[in-house]
Sequence to fold (306 residues):
Amino acid sequence: MARARNIKPGLFENEELAELGPFDRLLFIGLWTLADREGRLEDRPKRIKMKLFPGDDYDVDEGLAALADKGFVSRYEVEGFAVVEVANFLKHQKPHGTEKDSLLPDANGFLTVNERGKGGCVTGGKHLVHVSGVPAIKGNNVNPTLDNGSATVAPQSDNALILRFTDSPNPEEEQELAPQEQRPAPEPEQGPPANEAKRGTRLPADWTLPDDWLAWALSERPEFGEAAMRKVGESFGDHWRAATGKGATKLDWQATWRNWVRNQRIPIGVQRAGPSLGSRPSNFVNLPKHTPDMYREESAHDGPNF
Fold:
């Protein structure tokens, strides 16, 4: 089944790929649309030709060999499967979370099974299963337990893709379409400090205002001062620890803190930055002093009193 994929500008500047013929380069792009979420497809040149070049006189088998010679794809046979795997596929493509798992093993015979949450969307967890231990899939038969498309994904979203168009200012830096390198084992993720709220969780009972959050708040609202801003942090913690329902769980607590700070009113008794009212010069200075003599009537006066 063909899928929508992403083409980056660096593709056209890759010197290794430029040495191949135009049809070979087009074949490489076409393989992305035929590959599954792991970048694999069956090594069946005739079927590939019918999918990508139905009206052209082009030898797909020779094109695959040329791409493999340059390291852009690998061709292998394992446990009865003949597979083409696109190099660095997941580095440059972002399959949609509901796209079904690959039914083709890697060069070592392992299938990647993704853990899925509500709606059939991958959660990030995955594990490997050797294809020899899955009798239903050995010999190219579909194993229902691995077919996430029909079991957990709605038909209309089975092939939906999020397209991410990212222009790289330095194609050489991104190493676009470089030959496949052995992937190192992923390093364990480091959790956030204990006093920082994790994304998508309740605010911890022992949460205190982190220093970097305080520094940002003071740069945004310098008129508060550190002592007043720490009280703002206490009010933030008290409010969200007492919150219930969906509002008690935020996707991003740091963004929530920023909105909280921006909406705070200046505490009573704290003046905004800049000159205060008392420091402005008065308009009523250097006026003549009023004395009783200024309003004394003259004793001898002729004529009307005006």
